[in-house]
Structure formats: C-alpha cells, structure tokens
Design a protein that fits this description.
single chain; 158 residues; mainly alpha
C-alpha cells in the first residue's frame, strides 16, 4: 500500500536506519578493528535522528493506535522493542558492543522497522479518518523538525 503522506516523514527516517542496517549486514562479520567505528556511527545515528523518531512514535503515533483494540498488543510489542533498541544504542555509545552484537542489533532494528511499516502504518492508514491522519501528520512534522533528516554515512579515514 502507498504510504500516506502524513506518515512519510517517519518512513523516510526508517529508510535511513535501514540503510545503516544493510551496511552492517554487508560488513558482517564485523572485523574486530572496526567495532569502535560501527559503535560510533550507531550512536551518532541515534543522537541525530532515531532518538527523536522514537519519541515521536511513542508520543503521537502509538497513543492514536491504542484507540484501536486490535493494535494494542502490537503497540506493546513495539514499545518493548524500543526499550531493547535504546539499550543497544546506549551500549554502542559507551563502546561496549561486541562484533556479534552489532550484527544482531542491525537485524533487530531492521525487523522492528519492517513491523512498523508493514503492520502498524498499514493498519493505521486503513483505520484513521483523513482528518485524524492529517492531525497526526502535523504533530509529527513539529516533533521531527529537530531531527537531521539525512542519511548518516561514515566519515572516510584520512
């Protein structure tokens, strides 16, 4: 299904995070000499965009979804995944991730994003009246205005 324009900002950020996941997957198994670089990039992506993204979902999208009983268990599942992913970002920020944990993080983040896109967003587009979806879009625009909105690429070594 075509993404509703009011959810496109979140979907665009999902694409940025998925790009990171794909790059990690392609680099796996992560060479031990590159672990710090990957952790730095993961932490930067969180600070630049994902932290704000999670907050917008939790404060705007999830409460709206909870108005539909059929989405309550999905929202709880997604919130649990946010908690787990935040712990991963914290671990990356403190440079405590191992090579295998970086690969596992990318798998979990990718699965989480796909669940939001394919299940939550699809169903919300079917359930929400146009006026409500537009209100959600306005609130998301405001909430996301401080996110970088760019795809983070690694800085080449000099």
């Amino acid at each position: 299904m075509l993404r509703n324009k009011n959810l496109v900002p979140l979907s665009r950020q999902h694409q940025h995070a998925l790009a990171l996941c794909v790059r990690i997957e392609r680099a796996s198994p992560i060479d031990g000499s590159k672990v710090v670089e990957w952790q730095t990039e993961i932490a930067q992506q969180f600070d630049a965009e994902i932290k704000i993204h999670f907050a917008a979902e939790e404060q705007i999208v999830f409460p709206v979804a909870r108005n539909f009983s059929e989405l309550n268990s999905l929202v709880e599942e997604l919130l649990g995944e946010h908690r787990l992913l935040r712990a991963c970002f914290t671990k990356a920020e403190s440079r405590q991730m191992r090579s295998d944990e970086i690969t596992e993080f990318a798998r979990r983040l990718s699965e989480h994003i796909r669940k939001e896109e394919r299940q939550l967003f699809e169903r919300l587009q079917q359930l929400l009246p146009a006026e409500e979806m537009e209100r959600v879009g306005r609130e998301l625009d405001e909430a996301l205005e401080n996110a970088s909105q760019t795809c983070s690429l690694p800085t080449p070594k000099q």
